[in-house]
Specification:
This protein is mostly helical and 153 residues long. It is 67% helix and 0% strand. The protein has helices at 3-28, 46-51, 66-91, 98-103, 111-144, 147-150.
Length: 153
């Protein structure tokens, strides 16, 4: 693989993650959001697709310890588990009409639910920061490795 391609894919996945978090923030702030635009499944978001696809080749890098990939996987999974709580607040189908269920509209949110959603989002943001830190560490390791070593994976 060519180093520039690997870095481009990694950076694109990182940007996708940042956008995913921003969409969750907009949801918490009351903006109309399509429930499918913020995937709950950690393998369905753009970062997850990259991580469980192309990124698995990075396990072969001699300076990329397996623990690093495991940590990224665990943080990413934690992030989606936290978001599941937010999703349930905003998109559960309790007391919604037929058309709201059909089109995935947000339900009416109480002040208490909004407060809880913001608490979950605070946790989500902290996990996201840790995940970005690990992604940045991986990026530095890729930059540090020789292009010749990258051709071997």
């Amino acid at each position: 693989m060519v180093k520039e391609e690997i870095l481009k894919e990694l950076r694109s996945a990182k940007v996708a993650h940042i956008k995913w978090v921003q969409k969750a923030k907009l949801l918490i702030e009351g903006f109309e959001t399509d429930k499918n635009s913020i995937p709950v499944d950690s393998t369905a978001c753009k970062f997850g697709c990259w991580f469980y696809g192309e990124a698995q080749n990075l396990n072969a890098l001699k300076n990329n310890p397996i623990e690093s990939m495991k940590k990224i996987e665990d943080l990413h999974s934690d992030l989606h588990n936290i978001y599941l709580n937010i999703y349930k607040i905003y998109f559960s189908h309790d007391s919604q009409g037929f058309f709201s269920k059909l089109f995935g509209k947000k339900k009416k949110i109480t002040d208490e639910s909004t407060k809880l959603g913001k608490e979950y989002f605070s946790k989500l943001r902290l996990v996201s920061e840790s995940l970005l830190h690990e992604i940045n560490r991986m990026e530095r390791r890729i930059i540090a490795i020789s292009s010749q070593d990258l051709l071997k994976i």
